[in-house]
Task: inverse folding
């Protein structure tokens, strides 16, 4: 069943845990996994009770990327069917990238190809130091197409020109250096501990403010000169935040020296 391939649970405190669950195949994607993931991410997008999302892999790896047998069979289908399947994958990455909730990837073992796409779509990524990363597509005669907007945004065009073309492997330390992950930890236990630390930090933030901050980043990240439209967008963003229920509650709680009402 598809539910067994990707596990999804929501804790009362507002944390959703997504676990890729094909450990025997290093959690690689096929059409069933992609459909299940996309459905979960779509559900999360519409749920106000979910405030933080973590993504991790069961077993020895985060994700080895696409299931090669599935990709081979997909490439043998007619163009319309093949394209339809890749569009589902593209929509998965887009929906994950644009979630209003904060998303954390907890990475260990192997993180290849599409696995790096999930990491790049996350707001925060932490990896075990010896994690093996690679963008392996060119060695299979493919390209990292659907993940490219997010990976390039994470590591920059210059690093992408190296790692997209060489497909060489690199570890968590290098992944942190080039911006694919934010920091590394020594082992899996430390990874889970760091993940919990980040969850607790994120739950201190107002959920609407986090959503607006993510929108703000997407809107201004690729701007060159700051023109009138960008100034107006940013001014409206903070003006609306100040007037919002959350903004008024946050300021009131600060002056009253109490926790705001979104902190448990």
Result:
């Amino acid at each position: 069943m598809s539910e067994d391939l990707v596990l999804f649970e929501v804790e009362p405190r507002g944390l959703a845990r997504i676990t890729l669950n094909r450990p025997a195949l290093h959690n690689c994607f096929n059409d069933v996994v992609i459909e299940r993931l996309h459905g979960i991410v779509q559900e999360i997008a519409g749920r106000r009770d979910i405030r933080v999302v973590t993504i991790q892999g069961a077993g020895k790896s985060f994700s080895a990327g696409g299931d090669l047998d599935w990709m081979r069979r997909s490439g043998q289908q007619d163009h319309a069917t093949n394209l339809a399947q890749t569009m589902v994958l593209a929509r998965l990455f887009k929906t994950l990238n644009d979630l209003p909730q904060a998303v954390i990837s907890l990475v260990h073992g192997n993180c290849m190809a599409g696995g790096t796409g999930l990491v790049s779509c996350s707001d925060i990524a932490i990896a075990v130091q010896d994690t093996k990363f690679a963008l392996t597509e060119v060695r299979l005669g493919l390209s990292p197409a659907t993940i490219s907007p997010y990976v390039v945004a994470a590591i920059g065009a210059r690093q992408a020109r190296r790692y997209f073309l060489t497909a060489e492997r690199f570890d968590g330390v290098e992944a942190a250096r080039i911006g694919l992950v934010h920091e590394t930890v020594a082992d899996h236990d430390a990874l889970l501990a760091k993940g919990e630390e980040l969850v607790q930090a994120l739950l201190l933030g107002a959920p609407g403010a986090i959503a607006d901050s993510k929108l703000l980043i997407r809107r201004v990240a690729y701007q060159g000169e700051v023109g009138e439209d960008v100034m107006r967008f940013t001014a409206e963003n903070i003006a609306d935040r100040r007037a919002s229920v959350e903004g008024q509650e946050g300021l009131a709680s600060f002056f009253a020296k109490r926790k705001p009402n979104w902190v448990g």
